[in-house]
């Protein structure tokens, strides 16, 4: 992956582990189906919001785009749909505005912490 790609940069700006730790319980499936990761669910919702795609088009774009797959947490490119488009409804029901606001705060905290670290590493500040 090209480290300068916007989806790679965006993926690096999100504290996925902290978000997963706090909200993964929202995506536990007690009915025997394979559970989707929070990163996949949140990533798909972010992609959909970014482009205004329908549920079907969001899944197709993730399926066809290696950078979007990376953003959603896949370790390697897969040429099959990542999930059924009907799951987007499930993702949106779980990721309510209150939770998205909390996730946004975690992202802001990470960005602020990195800014402070970058400022303290800058030798020109002496």
Task: Name the average pLDDT.
Answer: 90
Distance between the termini: 36 Å
Order of helices and strands: HHHHHHH
What's the number of helices?
Answer: 7
Strands, total number: 0
Radius of gyration based on Cα positions: 16 Å
The proportion of residues forming helix, as a percent range, comes to 55-70%
Classify the secondary structure makeup into a structural class.
mainly alpha
pLDDT < 50 runs, ≥5 residues: none
Approximate strand percentage: under 5%
What general outline do the C-alpha atoms trace?
A: globular
Q: Profile the largest sheet.
A: none
Structural domains: how many: 1
Commentary on this structure:
The longest helix is centred in the C-terminal third of the chain and has 25 residues, at 97-121. The protein contains 7 helices and no strands. Helix 3 (38-51) packs across helix 4 (55-64). The chain has 126 residues and is mainly α. The radius of gyration is 16 Å and the shape is globular. The chain is 63% helix and 0% strand. The chain has one domain. It starts with 5 loop residues before the first helix and ends in a 5-residue tail after the last helix.
What's this, in brief?
Helices cover 63% and strands 0% of the residues. It has 126 residues and is mainly alpha-helical. The longest helix has 25 residues, at 97-121.
């Amino acid at each position: 992956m090209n480290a300068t790609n916007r989806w790679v940069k965006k993926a690096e700006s999100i504290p996925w582990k902290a978000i997963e730790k706090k909200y993964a319980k929202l995506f536990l499936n007690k009915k025997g189906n394979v559970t989707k990761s929070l990163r996949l669910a949140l990533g798909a919702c972010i992609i959909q919001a970014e482009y205004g795609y329908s549920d079907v088009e969001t899944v197709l774009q993730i399926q066809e785009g290696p950078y979007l797959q990376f953003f959603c947490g896949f370790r390697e490119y897969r040429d099959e749909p990542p999930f059924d488009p009907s799951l987007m409804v499930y993702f949106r029901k779980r990721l309510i505005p209150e939770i998205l606001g909390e996730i946004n705060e975690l992202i802001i905290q990470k960005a602020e912490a990195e800014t402070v670290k970058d400022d303290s590493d800058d030798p020109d500040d002496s």
